[in-house]
Write a structure and sequence with these properties.
InterPro entries: HotDog_dom_sf, MaoC-like_dom, MCH/BMMD
CATH architecture of the domain at 23-44 and 80-173: Roll
Radius of gyration: 20 Å
Strand order of the largest sheet: 1-3-4-5-2
Structural class: alpha+beta
Order of helices and strands: HEHHHHEEEE
Strand content: 25-35%
Number of strands: 5
Protein name: Acyl dehydratase
Shape: elongated
Helix content: 10-25%
Pfam families: MaoC_dehydratas
CATH superfamily of the domain at 23-44 and 80-173: Hotdog Thioesterase
Number of helices: 5
Organism: Murinocardiopsis flavida
Family: Belongs to the enoyl-CoA hydratase/isomerase family.
Length: about 170
């Protein structure tokens, strides 16, 4: 598949019809006056939590030991907070940054105000806090996002700011 045109190599359906490849938003399309709601949500399973925790070498009993967790104030295992953060940012990708991010520059103000448990469904939203043209990289802009995750009950479970280098719209598309 070259240039987003599947039919060039595969003779795919549609013949000469224009094709669209889903992408995120270019720098110019991102607005500080919009809240971007990301759907669908993502239901977290015990397998997700166990796999992520072991993959990342985090043997914390709060994540992996149901008997231990039952004796804590939570009464059950907690989902690994870095899984929550990764899922929060991941939920935003298709709508906001798919194919338009050059690089993540950093994360800040990461908070987990409420726990996430197996079976919770995470819903994410993103705001653009500010943006500016890159001084050192023509064709790119620097955008600071605020990502927020709520569970199925509307409870805020995660918040993070992320700064990213984002592509400007190509001149041919302008």
């Amino acid at each position: 598949m070259h240039g987003g045109r599947q039919d060039e190599e595969t003779g795919g359906a549609g013949g000469d019809l224009p094709r669209t490849v889903q992408r995120g938003l270019y720098f110019e399309e991102l607005s500080t006056e919009t809240v971007y709601d990301h759907r669908p949500g993502r239901t977290v399973t015990e397998a997700d939590n166990t796999f992520f925790s072991t993959l990342t070498m985090n043997p914390q009993s709060l994540h992996l030991d149901a008997h231990f967790s039952a004796a804590t104030e939570f009464g059950r295992p907690l989902v690994n907070s870095l899984f929550t953060l990764s899922t929060l940012v991941g939920l935003s990708v298709a709508q906001i940054t798919q194919g338009t991010t050059v690089a993540n520059l950093g994360f800040g103000a990461v908070e987990f105000p409420s726990p996430v448990f197996h079976g919770d469904t995470l819903y994410a939203e993103t705001r653009v806090l500010d943006k500016r043209l890159s001084r050192s990289r023509p064709g790119n802009g620097v955008v600071r996002f605020e990502h927020r995750a709520h569970n199925q009950d509307g409870e805020l479970v995660a918040r993070a700011e992320r700064t990213a280098l984002i592509l400007l719209r190509p001149q041919a598309d302008a």
